[in-house]
Write a structure and sequence with these properties.
By secondary structure, the protein is an alpha/beta fold. The chain has a single domain, classed as 3-Layer(aba) Sandwich (Rossmann fold), CATH 3.40.50.850. Helix content is 20%, strand content 23%. The protein contains four helices and eight strands; from the N terminus they run E-H-E-E-E-E-H-E-H-E-H-E. The chain has a six-stranded parallel sheet with strand order 5-2-1-6-7-8. Strands 3-4 form a two-stranded antiparallel sheet. Helix 3 packs parallel to helix 4. The protein is globular and about 50 Å long.
Length: 203
């Protein structure tokens, strides 16, 4: 077991991000069993869960004549338009059935405000509306976090960079994450994480 000040944050290992899902990440399901094993190393385990209302503003279907993976400007900045995914209460929003929940001490739901998306487990995409995760981790005495999950170049990336900005020591297990890689997003994410001081680990 790792020291009491270390936490594992498992990002969005949900059905819609796994093969067969609405926004499937290639081999997304391959991380499930290794993550399950990895959980046993940590005294604190947190899961994040994308949790969108129907008709969310980040869905391409919510905008006339817009296609998935296009970009529009929202009040908080550029927003990628996604296929409808992780709609509250649907099977797509549920965690992958193989993911262990018994070691989980907190679930952070994000993206539930209809007008704003949320990639990071710490902040909405306006970079100022907190999810409450920082407070939970501080109250638990956590100073170091390791992130795994889906997708490496979006929600894992944004969460890791935000954690570093908040003063946590941060590592990302690349081998326990998978990427979408949308128009070079993976290389950009890896570069940004390194510049933010995130340790990128592959075992």
């Amino acid at each position: 077991m790792r020291p009491a000040n270390e936490a594992l944050i498992v990002i969005d290992v949900q059905n819609d991000f796994c093969p067969g899902g609405a926004l499937a990440v290639e081999d997304g399901d391959k991380v499930v069993q290794p993550i399950n094993t990895f959980m046993d190393e940590f005294p604190v385990v947190v899961l994040s869960q994308d949790w969108h209302p129907a008709g969310h503003g980040s869905f391409a279907s919510s905008h006339t004549d817009k296609a998935p993976f296009g970009v529009i400007n929202m009040p908080y900045g550029p927003q990628v338009l996604w296929p409808d995914h992780c709609v509250q209460g649907t099977e797509g929003a549920a965690f992958h059935p193989g993911l262990r929940l018994d070691r989980t001490q907190m679930i952070v739901r994000k993206g539930f405000r209809p007008e704003i998306d949320s990639y990071s487990a710490f902040f909405e995409n306006d970079y100022k509306t907190p999810t409450g995760l920082q407070g939970y981790l501080r109250d638990r005495g956590v100073g170091k976090v390791t992130l795994v999950g889906l997708a490496l170049d979006f929600c894992v990336n944004f969460s890791a960079v935000d954690a570093a900005k908040l003063g946590f020591e941060v590592a990302v297990r690349k081998d326990l994450s998978r990427a979408i890689d949308l128009d070079g997003s993976l290389d950009a994410a890896l570069k940004g994480m390194r510049e933010a001081g995130v340790e990128l680990v592959t075992l």
